[in-house]
Task: structure prediction
Amino acid sequence: MSPMPDTILRVGRFDPAEFAARYAAPLFLLLLIAVFTALEPRFAHPLNVFNILRQVSISGLVAIGMTFVILTKGIDLSVGSLLALSGLVGAYVAKGGLDDRFALGGAATAANPLFLVVLAALAAGMLGGAVQGLAITRLKVPPFVVTLGGLTAFRGAALLFSGGGPISGFSADYAWWGQGRIGMVPVPVVIFLGAALIAHFVLTYTVFGKHVYATGGNERAADLNGVPTRRVVFITYVISGFACGLAGFLLSARLNSAEAVAGSGLELTVIAAVVIGGTSLFGGVGSIVGTVIGALLLGVLTNGLVLLNVSSFIQQIVIGITLVAAVTLDQFAVRRRQAQ
Amino acid sequence: MKPPILELKNISKHFGAIQALEGIDVQLGQGEVVGLMGDNGAGKSTLVRIIAGNFQPSAGEVILAGERVRFASSAGARQSGIEVVHQDLALCDNLTAADNVFLGRELRRRIGPFSILDYRAMARRAAELFSELQSETRPNDKVRLMSGGQRQAVAIARTRLSDARIVLMDEPTAAISVRQVGTVLDLIKRLRDRGITVVLISHRMPDVFAVADRLVVLRRGRKVADKPIADTTPEEATGLITGAIAVA
Result:
């Protein structure tokens, strides 16, 4: 019996659309770095490099969680609000209440050990994610709607919880997580990169990671083959909530203050980072490496334009165009895939 | 008639007021290829889904290798050696062939406290299955880059992962080119040669007559024919499907 007659050999076949969709972000990042370094000597100074990384680390962490969600063809618009709420919950626990919410150097009044603070912030984030995940998987409400509701509701909850004002002035231990350094590297950067490594490992080498890609690629097929798709989708929203909790804690530590308005509009930056990093909004395609590159690209772009004294209005235009260009490439690649 | 591996006794299934199947008796012999035909809505897919554990019958019993069974889900049927090749093949285009073959039953190995995907073992096993099926599908190619025949091979390879006793194929030749149909029919013959029972649902008369040992025709939820393929003709089958011939 002869082998299949029409096996098509495609190894080494170069597809420009595929190549562009895949490598546009890293190439553009390198180009930006080269241009900024050439135009502005301060850009490549180690202090500035770490500055960029630190700025990127908070939104980058949230973007890692968002990557899981978008890979399953979902979206999480609630991240900014959830970040604010979990930061406040952590700060509340740190202070043991709202009585001396403005006391500086709160060491004297520190009511609870730091690990409880972190646990509380993470639990708040994961709970918020779990509630949304349940609504999406059990009640079958589209993720866009559920998390749009979350965007408003969690912000309202944060305002209600804090009475509108900030909770500020933490112990040195607390602030170290946002302001400290390990060697030269800011602590949030270490956490961001550590989280990226773990997330990359999970997506690439675990059954859960494979099921995330399968669910995003073809949910019905995954279902028929015994993938617990509802559980997979649910967990991705919990992961996103976890990332918000961690980021909320780190941001409050960095600012030495937790506020209900923290992270306003963060969802847009984060989704932009994920999408620019090559993760498809159509699900099933993307990576953590891409998301880290997307987050860095936005950080470098903003920082470089600031150093070059470009108006922040123009920065927004540039970022907007970059985002649309990234999605255009993705669309193009998708159409090519379908045509094949 | 070969010794039956699966018996359906007086199976009925209704969805609310709609009677999808009524009093169906079918026996599947070991290593037999049974062509299941019928018009749209005749109840073919319902019958297959009852065998595959997706649906539970409203009445009647399913007897697998002499034992009465009742599957709560497709996973239960799969554990008992019943595999399905779905009409649209149920493939994830964004994953590789090997990923798809092992989807839902991935191989893992332990590294310290972690249980990680054993990509090498899965690729090796998938390659063996593809060569067994005489398909040149490469395990690490993405499914979206594959031809219809290769995709078919990936879906069929899944059924060879465990010791399947029965393979249900829902319209396996509907979505592929005429050239590739022959390949799929060869695959079915090879499954049969290994003693595996195949149920072939098809609208394509030539396919059924090329590989099936027996023909079962459903019309409006009832069995109207069940006879060796040698004793019937495409003309009679068409008549049975459309109702021009009431029963045979």
Notes: Confidence is low (pLDDT under 50) at residues 1-11 of chain A. Chain A has one domain: 17-333.
